Each structure stands twice: as structure tokens, then as C-alpha cells.
Amino acid sequence: MPISLNHTIVWASDPGKSARLLATILGRPTPMRFGHFEVVQLDNEVTLDFAAWTGPIQSQHYGFLIGEDDFDPIFDRIREEGLNYWADPFRRRPNEINRDDGGRGVYFADLDDHLLEVITRPYGGG
């Protein structure tokens, strides 16, 4: 059997709200409840399982490879939600997108300051 990522847990102060925000931004179906998780299903059968955490939450990074045709609608939703966004992971280029490797990409922060990224070309693919 090949080895593939199946799921990861995303700690959140409000799992339902965070999962719904990500699902909205990415244009995914409404998150499903599974036990104490709010689950966002991706197209490649990987899930992000949002779970409650009551202490300080360490910011993590989650990168999503999307189609070129998906970039504009996703970027529009990022701006409609009033989320901060950057062209770089160090947050030094606010309110910009990048064109790395011949594609487009943008970083944005979720409700718990996890740094989310959408790119249309994998790194090294340009």
C-alpha cells in the first residue's frame, strides 16, 4: 500500500468557526462533525480535523495546491472575509500576491493565526 497523508489535526479556539472559514475560503462543502472534530474534506481524500484547544495555540502552516482557475475565486473570498494576506510566509509583503514558479500564490491568517497558503504551481515547478 502506498503511504499518503490521510488527515492532520488543526488546533483551534473555536473549531466550528475555523473549519467553516477554511471551507468557505476554499469553496469546500460544509465541514462534517466527527466525534469532537470539525472535518474539512479536500479533493485528494486528505482531511483537516479541527479540534478545540484551550491554551495558547502555536501557529502552524498549511499549504494548498489549487488550480489556476480556482485562484481568483479563492482570493476574492479571502478579501471578502477581510482577512490579512501576504505574498510571503514572513509577512513582509502585505496586500500582495506572489508569482513564484510561474504561478500565483498568497498567504493568509486564520482565526488562530495559522498561516494558510494557496499556490497554483508547486515549488520548483516553474
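^ that was protein a. below is b, sequence first then the C-alpha cells
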Amino acid sequence: MHTGEQYHAIIQASPRDRRVRERFQNMALNLLAEGAQVLDLGAGTGIDAKVYAANGHPTFVYEPMAAMRDYLALYCCDEIANNTVIKLASPRYCKVQAVTANFAVLNHFADHTALFEDLSLVVQQGGFVLACMLNPFYLGDARYGWWRHNLVNLVRRGRYAITSESGIHRFVPRVVAQAAAPHFRLERLTPSGFGWATQLYMFLLLRRV
């Protein structure tokens, strides 16, 4: 288990992770109206929140892990002091245009139905949830036994879990979309084509209806 500072250093030192994060941030910023408020769900050490705030978006942050929260308080200390990054004890304590969940936050849930029910009370009509999730079709994982052993579950059920400390679950996009309905509809999904085999992460844009 990494400390918040260790996690921050590792993820910031990874060129691949930085590219994924930049793509996610740019997608979120392009979708947000000027000055719109954001909830960064599973905010980690505040890397995304700092960027949103710098671009004029007051950002609520919810992070359940104490080690991450502690480092977020250091990394975003100026933004917290200026009230452009606002820490929450529960994600229900805000009303925003958008919720962002970067780097597999939603993969820590076994089922998303209750989560999207809660988020429907947080996201304004016409707003959105943008999630970066692990791609269950990524062939780079085919070298692992757990990936091969779960292919049947992926085809039959559209989901599977890996027994590990982190409790990670994999989902096909339709399962997430079904859990989000009727409050949200899947509006955009990337990658496409050959990208399903080569990209570790997928981006799901779900619109509040």
C-alpha cells in the first residue's frame, strides 16, 4: 500500500499515465460550461482537481482513503485556502454540472446501481459523469492467468472480479450503462476499433437525463 506522496510520485512519473490523465482532463474541460462546478469522485491526491480549479471550475473533492486525503490537502493547499477546491465528507453534499472519476475509481465498485442513484441527486439535469475505467478487452492483460480464466465470465455476464487487496472489478460498457439507467444514458465511449485491444483504459461519458 502506497502513501499518498508515493502514489503521487509514481503516477506523475509514468509517461503513459500522464498521457491518459491529460486526455481525460481535456475531455472534461471541453465538456464543461464556463465556471461550472465539478465533483472529483475518488480524487486521489488532487491532480485533476488542481487542473479543473486552475481553469475556473470550483471543484468538490471526495476521497475515501486517508493517505490520499492527507496528500491532497498539501498538494491543493492554496486552492483549498481560496475555496476553489472544496473537500467533502460525502459526495452527496454538493450539486454540480459534472462528476469525474479518473483512473479506475469505478472499478472498485462491485455494482454501480446504487452509486448512479446517488449521483442522480448530485448531477444537474443535462450534466454528465465522465469515468475512466479499466478496459476488459485490453490484450496486454492476456499474459495473466486471471484474465484468461475470466473470459467466460466476461462473455456471459459482462463482468468479473479479481481476488486481490484492491478488490478490482472489470466491466463491459453495457453493464455500466445498464446500472446508470434510467438516470444517465451512455453518450460516448472510447476507444473504438483496434483501440479495444491496445488501450488499457476506456472513457465513458454518461449524460444526466
